[in-house]
Amino acid sequence: MRGMTAQFPVARPRRLRRTAPLRRMVAGTRLHPAELILPLFVKEGIAEPNPVSSMPGVLQHTRDSLRKAAHEAAEAGVGGLILFGIPAHKDARGSAADDPDGIVQVALADLAAEVGDALVLIADTCLDEYTDHGHCGLLTASGEVDNDATLERYAAAAVAQARAGAQVIAPSGMMDGQVAAIRAALDGDGFAEIPILAYSAKFASGYYGPFREAAECAPQFGDRNAYQQDPAGPIRESLREVELDLAEGADAVMVKPALAYLDVLRQIRDLVDVPVAAYQVSGEYAMVEAAAANGWIDRERVIMESLIAIRRAGADLILTYWATEIARRLA
Ligand code: PBG
């Protein structure tokens, strides 16, 4: 028989799987704490941190508990954190987004003073957490998101975040031209050195459900289908978004969600030379936690397997709510 000497197989892939040291030596896909980015939520006007019921283990932080969480992440060796704010007051234009006294700005200043040298402080730049209607931009009279009017708001928010101490700006609203608008505003305000991590391939996803509880940003009417990408859309649409963002000055790009879009991630990784991030979003987190709480899956094993899959598909950076836990486990 071919592939056999006498009755023995010539090739035995199992030889390299036999012991743990062998498997570790040939593994090839490795995670490092420095590649992990922890999303954190800070809420204005609360005395105690609020648990997010759909994301067991995740909190809406006070300014104090946020600092503690950031210190823990830094001590574990996590590479960076990305901050989302929930203001006490929302309005149609999302005024708190660029208010120097807005919750994200004051929290960024706290973090810059305490952990700014230990990990990278990333600000998510969008309007949905700040608008009373919950959309990612300003609305026209007929209730559509007004792309170009929104760009000015993003630019102002990004500058306010940079002034407060943000070290990377991450625009997540999927408006056309958002990277160019933010780049110009940062450069014009003396922040030419601040990189932009663009949410380039961001899909209109059911996996964001728990985040909308955590960030209190569910749209009050309609959905985000007219600005986020269609899950059934062609991959080349994501590649085009990436190319446009790079042409507009993005320094790194992101795919979001992660696990359901690993094919998109791989194609982007093969296309570009900049770092590619993947966001393991709230729904991905919640599904694992819920199944594990029921005893249906092995929590630690599935978390690690999902992160390895994202890494193997090509992510250089992974945003994950498990960042601190995983960093500790990797140590
Ligand atoms: C928008 C934003 C969202 C997430 C990150 N930035 C929500 C949305 O687009 O509706 C989702 C993150 C997650 O689900 O973990 N500012």
TrEMBL record:
The active site is at K202, K256. 5-aminolevulinate 1 binds at R212, R224. Coiled coil: none annotated. Mg(2+) binds at E241. It catalyses: 2 5-aminolevulinate = porphobilinogen + 2 H2O + H(+). Pathway: Porphyrin-containing compound metabolism; protoporphyrin-IX biosynthesis; coproporphyrinogen-III from 5-aminolevulinate: step 1/4. GO terms for molecular function: porphobilinogen synthase activity; zinc ion binding. Its EC number is 4.2.1.24. It comes from the Bacteria. This is Delta-aminolevulinic acid dehydratase. The gene is hemB.
